[in-house]
Amino acid sequence: MLRLDQLHAAISGNKWYKLKRNLEAALAGGKTGLLTFGGAWSNHLAATAAACHATGLRSIGVVRGERPATLSLTLQQAQAHGMELQFISREAYRTVNPAEWGARFPEYFVVPEGGHNALGALGCEDILKSAPGLDAYTHLLCAGGTGTTLAGLINSAAPGQTVIGIPVLKQAEWMEASIRELLRPRHTPVAWQLHYQFHQGGYAKTSPALFAFMNDFHAQTGIPLDIIYTGKMGMAFRGLALGGHFQAGSRILLLHTGGLQGNLSLPPGVLSFH
Ligand SMILES: *Cc1c(COP(=O)(O)O)cnc(C)c1O
């Protein structure tokens, strides 16, 4: 398992890779900050706030839903990192137009929800350079939300490697096109596949089986997984392996993309760690 969760306490995992080129572009363009979008428990908002804070940039988070009486821990932390929060109704969020927000805040570099853009995918190409020897694996397994990270992996995988994506949303067949949008032409195409049956009921949906798996995984390995992404990726790995998906001799790299702050949305005691 590649432990991107251990990269940084607040700028967790793959979110840092998706942000770094966007931060560079904002600075190069003379912008004073980043403006982006997300829900109340968004890892992306948390990471954007922390990364901007560390870079000396401002940040604005456009948050889905009316301002609640008490902010989620994620939003409290984002605010503590200086993020200005703009709440909009769920309805308005559904048709949110990044260009409009860019026109409203011209000093800000606008990053789409989840960091889904070419710069995000480009930054994720560095994931496989983050440790030596990663080209020796036959399979790379990673959770998918927008597919940006998967696109970066597919663009940078070694010839012969297979990239396996586990969408954590229900009916996520759109993710294939969302990945293709960000693929670059390659001399040696890399095989990739998405497995859609491991979402546990949908985005941010959990199940007793998921918690049991995560607790068991932690007991066996000492590694904490998160409920939204990596827990489902871990279950998918187990499901695929037990289902005979991998040939003998396969070397499989699981990507721990971080996101552990999202576990704070659970009542205490559900997980044996955190
Ligand atoms: C956001 C996130 C993902 C999904 O990344 P995408 O690039 O949107 O597919 C995976 N794992 C964790 C922990 C995340 O926070």
Automatic annotation (TrEMBL):
Tell me the keywords, alphabetical order.
Pyridoxal phosphate
Residue positions of the active site: S42 (nucleophile)
Organism domain of life? Bacteria
**Pfam families linked to this entry:** PALP
Q: Could you tell me one molecular function GO term of this UniProt entry? A: D-cysteine desulfhydrase activity
Checking InterPro entries in the record gives: ACCD_DCysDesulf (IPR027278), TrpB-like_PALP (IPR001926), TrpB-like_PALP_sf (IPR036052)
Sequence positions bearing N6-(pyridoxal phosphate)lysine: K15
Chain ranges of the Tryptophan synthase beta chain-like PALP domain: 4-258
Q: Which cofactor does it need?
A: pyridoxal 5'-phosphate
Task: Read off the SUPFAM superfamilies from this record.
Answer: Tryptophan synthase beta subunit-like PLP-dependent enzymes (SSF53686)
Q: Which residues form a coiled coil?
A: none
Spell out the family assignment given in the record's similarity comment.
Belongs to the ACC deaminase/D-cysteine desulfhydrase family.
Q: What is this protein called?
A: 1-aminocyclopropane-1-carboxylate deaminase
Origin organism is: Chitinophaga parva
